[in-house]
């Protein structure tokens, strides 16, 4: 199985819509949609100018969803993200003024440029789908999807995301540079028009919510669940790993696999789904020992090793 496997017609329409803006990154679009259907969130780590922001905007336009952008800076406060209560003298009471986190799709741009205190303001929103201001908890709009970006080369003035924050992202993706042909195609498209202004909605929010509900109905056999657990448990025992994948990571991999199977028109998960998704779901949840880096071991290399030595179960239809 590959990322080129045929998709459900409705989802194929969304992917092609986004592809009018983002050239040659079909796998990233499909994986982003996987996270959206699984009610998870995405961390995009890559150099500037490869289309991270355009991807989020194109997704939002495909569903006519409300999009808010938060530019994370060192002086950003938690209240700038989740909102504040302001006293209304006419009504003689405090009123909640929503922050930019209150939207269907939130672009958290350069998330690692703000302090850990402000980063933590996202935790409740990403995990619970709600925000708490002055002791009052308010539900966020549904669907709620955060796509955060960070630059891997600009280390000055950044704050590394803590493990608790990384664990909240279902997938960690990289866009990568386009090929020469893809970059030429991009120049052709941008020569006389702006593709983002040309696309419109191809799926309603109600249809998106219905697809999200169907994810839970995708069957995961005991065999596949054992395969997930075996991968995760081996990560905890690896000699080069300081902190292995948590049980939250096991659940995340299963949920992502359910959404991935649905996208490809199946009502059951197969081991190939796990193999396709594991690098994007698990790698950022591994904390590698500092001394292992001298041996050029990183999380992706270790995960590839674990997958290679973990027997793949034979799985057919349920």
UniProtKB/TrEMBL annotation:
Stored Gene3D superfamilies: Magnesium chelatase subunit I, C-Terminal domain, P-loop containing nucleotide triphosphate hydrolases
One Pfam short name: AAA_3
Matches recorded under InterPro entries: ATPase_AAA-3 (IPR011703), CbbQ/NirQ/NorQ/GpvN (IPR050764), ChlI/MoxR_AAA_lid (IPR041628), P-loop_NTPase (IPR027417)
Boundaries of every ChlI/MoxR AAA lid domain copy: 234-305
The ATPase AAA-3 domain, residue ranges: 41-171
PANTHER family named among the record's database cross-references: METHANOL DEHYDROGENASE REGULATOR, MOXR FAMILY PROTEIN
Name of the featured protein: MoxR family ATPase
Organism, as annotated: Geobacillus icigianus
């Amino acid at each position: 199985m590959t990322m080129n496997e045929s998709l459900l017609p409705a989802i194929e329409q969304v992917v092609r819509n986004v592809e009018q803006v983002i050239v040659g990154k079909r796998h990233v679009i499909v994986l982003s949609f996987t996270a959206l259907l699984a009610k998870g969130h995405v961390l995009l780590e890559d150099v500037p100018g490869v289309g991270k922001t355009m991807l989020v905007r194109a997704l939002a336009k495909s569903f006519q969803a409300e999009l808010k952008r938060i530019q994370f800076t060192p002086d950003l406060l938690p209240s700038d993200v989740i909102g504040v209560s302001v006293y209304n003298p006419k009504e003689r009471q405090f009123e909640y003024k929503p922050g930019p986190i209150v939207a269907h799709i939130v672009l958290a741009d350069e998330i690692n440029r703000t302090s850990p205190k402000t980063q933590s303001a996202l935790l409740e929103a990403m995990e619970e789908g709600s925000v708490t201001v002055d002791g009052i908890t308010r539900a966020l709009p549904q669907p709620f999807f955060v796509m955060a970006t960070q630059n891997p080369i600009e280390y000055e003035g950044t704050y590394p995301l803590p493990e608790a924050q990384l664990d909240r992202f279902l997938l960690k993706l990289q866009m990568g540079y386009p090929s020469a042909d893809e970059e030429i195609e991009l120049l052709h498209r941008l020569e006389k028009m702006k593709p983002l202004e040309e696309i419109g909605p191809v799926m309603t929010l109600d249809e998106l919510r219905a697809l999200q509900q169907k994810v839970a109905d995708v069957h995961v056999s005991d065999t596949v669940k054992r395969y997930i657990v075996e991968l995760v448990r081996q990560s905890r025992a690896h000699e080069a790993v300081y902190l292995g994948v948590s049980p939250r990571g096991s659940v995340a991999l299963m949920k992502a696999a359910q959404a991935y199977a649905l996208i490809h028109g199946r009502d059951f998960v197969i081991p190939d789904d796990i193999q396709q998704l594991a690098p994007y779901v698990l790698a950022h949840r591994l904390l590698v020992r500092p001394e292992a880096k001298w041996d050029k071991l990183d999380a992706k290399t270790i995960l590839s090793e674990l997958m290679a030595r973990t027997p793949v179960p034979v799985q057919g239809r349920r």
